[in-house]
Amino acid sequence: MSIQTSNMNRISFLPLSSIRRPIVPVLDEDKITRMIETLSRTDPQAIDDGLPPIDVLRVRKNGKDWYFGFGGCHRFQAYERTGKQTVKCKVVPVTESMLKMYVGGSVDEMFKERSADAPPSSVTAV
Ligand SMILES: Nc1ncnc2c1ncn2[C@@H]1O[C@H](COP(=O)(O)OP(=O)(O)OP(=O)(O)O)[C@@H](O)[C@H]1O
């Protein structure tokens, strides 16, 4: 079982700004446009916004939860461009050493504090 497929049942609404995205995406603009159309067809308050949840890895370190998104680049763009503050995610808890294995190198740079970080209290599990 890979780290993506374990603990698949935790769906949370995370602040978009709390998810670090270390990989620079190559984007298909048409796909983003179609995703935005999907979002525009659903009630903004609805839990099911028409897009599947994005897999996000969560590492607990220094008493804090750190969230990393390695996929979902088109969905992230669609949410950003429609002004969404929170994103439906499938949270996969991993250890720092699992993250290192996944990244294939040092992850120290990925744990730097940023001014945009949202407080953990804004994370809502469903
Ligand atoms: N316009 C759309 N409306 C609804 N669902 C969509 C739409 N486009 C893609 N999806 C669904 O969203 C999921 C993610 O699609 P896709 O992999 O193409 O984009 P992504 O967000 O960049 O994700 P990843 O980077 O993980 O591949 C798939 O399950 C796909 O079926």
Can you walk me through this structure?
It catalyses: S-hydroxy-S-oxy-L-cysteinyl-[peroxiredoxin] + [protein]-dithiol + ATP = S-hydroxy-L-cysteinyl-[peroxiredoxin] + [protein]-disulfide + ADP + phosphate. This protein starts with 10 loop residues before the first strand and ends with a strand. Helix 1 (29-40) crosses helix 2. It has helices at residues 29-40, 73-81, 96-103; strands spanning 11-15, 19-20, 54-61, 64-68, 86-94, 124-125. It is globular. It is α/β, with parallel strands linked by helices and 126 residues long. The protein contains 3 helices and 6 strands, in the order ββαββαβαβ. The protein has a 6-stranded mixed sheet with strand order 2-4-3-5-1-6. 23% of the residues lie in helices and 25% in strands. The chain has a single domain (11-125), classed as Conserved hypothetical protein from pyrococcus furiosus pfu- 392566-001, ParB domain. The mean pLDDT is 85. The longest helix has 12 residues, at 29-40.
Short description:
With 126 residues, the chain is α/β, with parallel strands linked by helices.
List the topology elements.
Layout: E1 11-15, E2 19-20, H1 29-40, E3 54-61, E4 64-68, H2 73-81, E5 86-94, H3 96-103, E6 124-125
Parallel strand pairs: 2-4, 3-5
Antiparallel strand pairs: 1-5, 1-6, 3-4
Residues 31, 34-35, 38, 50-52, 71-75 line the site of adenosine-5'-triphosphate.
Relevant terms:
alpha/beta, Conserved hypothetical protein from pyrococcus furiosus pfu- 392566-001, ParB domain, 6-stranded mixed sheet, binds adenosine-5'-triphosphate, nucleotide-binding
